[in-house]
Records
---
Amino acid sequence: MAHTVREKAKLLARVRRMKGQMEAVERALESEAPCGDVMQLLASIRGALAGLTSEVVEGYLHEHVLHASDETARAEAANELAQVLRTYIR
Amino acid sequence: MAHTVREKAKLLARVRRMKGQMEAVERALESEAPCGDVMQLLASIRGALAGLTSEVVEGYLHEHVLHASDETARAEAANELAQVLRTYIR
Amino acid sequence: MAHTVREKAKLLARVRRMKGQMEAVERALESEAPCGDVMQLLASIRGALAGLTSEVVEGYLHEHVLHASDETARAEAANELAQVLRTYIR
Amino acid sequence: MAHTVREKAKLLARVRRMKGQMEAVERALESEAPCGDVMQLLASIRGALAGLTSEVVEGYLHEHVLHASDETARAEAANELAQVLRTYIR
């Protein structure tokens, strides 16, 4: 069972929390809150997003690369992971 | 006028697009989409968030540090900016 | 043959270039060059380091995870890679 | 006095430590050490570089933007800082 299915409830809760943070940015912009508040909210979303992404990437590495069903699937997963890592290691 | 007020409509549009991307992650998890899709969606949100944050930080630097109303306001803004930068330069 | 052995000359050239950049920072500090110069030099090293790291990580993923000699070696390599990725995805 | 002059000895010590780490990467490549060792060394340099950069950026923000000699110098420093921040917030 894929990691994102096994941990579905926990991952969904984290995504919804981030959506709530995004809505807080929306409200801050609409109500013309101090620019510093918007900046701090964005920094906190970044932290939450990094935490979620780190967990999903690690789950992907173990589920689809380490425990691939066959060598073709493993190679495809390794390539997909490499593509995503390029957006982070820069 | 603060940068986030002057550019309010444009910034709100970007935030709402990111919220839409977040909802796409939510649907992907709910529908038990392939783990790789979730990973790619999260990477694209990261890019959008970085772009928005970079603009808000730069607006803050110019609006509240460079063109502060007085030296006390400038010092407070510089400290708030320094705090946020620590979460990025690591 | 490991990626870092096969690409040894190319990787060594990149590391020596970065060492040269680091020596430029050293000279800038010693000669009390403008602070902005030191800041720009550090930013350029970061870019070079990210490029080199991205290549080594990708080589590692393919060499030691995808084409591991056996399942034990694969599991160890996946864990080592996961550990390194945690320092980047944050 | 500029931050990089006032803290010269401390900053030079950090740069020389990083140069030592870079030489360790050089030796690891030359001696064909395990690829994982190279990867871990690069990750540790990244951490050291981020710490040094964060300190230099913060010193720059306070020295050259907050306490600029005049408004022209302040505007130039703010622009130089904005340029460097774009390489980090992405």
---
Amino acid sequence: MKPEVLLSRIRVVLCRPSHPGNIGAAARAMKTMGLSDLRLVSPKQFPDPEADTRATGAVDLLANARVSDSLAEALHGCVFAVALSARQRDLGPAIGTPRDTMARLLERASLGEVALVFGNETMGLSNEEVLQCQAAVTIPTSPDFSSLNLGAAVQVLCYECRMAAFSGAAPLREQLTTPFTAPPATHDEIEGLYGHLEAVMTDTGFLNPAQPGRLLPKLRRLFGRADLERDEVNILRGILAATQQRTGHGRKG
Amino acid sequence: MKPEVLLSRIRVVLCRPSHPGNIGAAARAMKTMGLSDLRLVSPKQFPDPEADTRATGAVDLLANARVSDSLAEALHGCVFAVALSARQRDLGPAIGTPRDTMARLLERASLGEVALVFGNETMGLSNEEVLQCQAAVTIPTSPDFSSLNLGAAVQVLCYECRMAAFSGAAPLREQLTTPFTAPPATHDEIEGLYGHLEAVMTDTGFLNPAQPGRLLPKLRRLFGRADLERDEVNILRGILAATQQRTGHGRKG
């Protein structure tokens, strides 16, 4: 199943959100990660201009958001639901990490609709709500300050959903990273650079051939880490050749 | 080194942020993940009540935030900097995933101060700013809607920093990878090298300042990949100084 289809099967359920701005931020967070199905359980204020403002280009998710009076209604038809919870609830599902739990959520999404359930900004989810979910997740935070913004929490979990959906998908990485645009330097080209560098250092008196010390190995170590391209070797040798012309030494490389 | 200490060594640098609310959201996102060092480069409006409101319990980070006029100043003393960039820049560092790149950032944090650099909400970072960083990262988004909120982007990367810091994988990596034998070069030391190199190339006629072309960005890209050590910068500058003495030019760096 395509990652995009799996992501489209994830409902984000916000229970009793107080601030319409957070609803907008959640919509924007969802859409950046390829999620689209927003559900609101008894929102304090919705629709609201502040939600639209914070959603920016994701107002379509707000327009399509379904509002209900109960979590049970929002979860109707779901095959799996995960509750965000800062603490282990009595008899509640064991709390997992975002990475492991979102991987599990995506696995279940291949079987049907699934849900991510978030509580109210100050109260979180009730025990009764957590017990309606099959799994629970905590976003690890600093013990000194665990006050994650609701929109930020939605962003982190949606991000992990996208990472899980596209995991092992080489095409994503290919889009992200551009390989070297130039051919790599060959062994002999790099050795030519070292020879040229040694000649210039000797000419200028920076290197004493009788007592070379660790200078050359250090330069090899530095350039060895850089995965030199042919073009780069040519630039460096061009710089060296230009200094040789000025100092009256012929090219020795 | 303790994860908490590694996280305390990460600067979050916001370049030219337009909306004070986003500065507040970034501070809150940082603090939830155990980061504390916020730097602002030419913010449009700061301090501002809206920043305080969105920061909630993280106003201490705003009070301690250092404001500067240039990215170079914000990165002074850093041994590694990562730019958030939605696209591969011409000659810029290769773009990695948040997971891999934050793991690398945490590794470097064991050697000194490091930085995560974010651009303006609408314009992002300039090419010149990206070229001051040794690595780049993109947060994977839906191709249909890639408009991540600035505060949300800070949240995702700080979350990945915390996950990397507490992954427990660090000791294993320390065994696998060869640790640096010398202290890493800082941002300002590396910039000093580039200035020195430019002076020598200009003196020798290799570089025409009126038509510099892509020479300097190419050299930044090469040395950016190498994770330069202080000792290596000193060697390279020693070579440059020796050629200057021979060509009769004084040190210009």
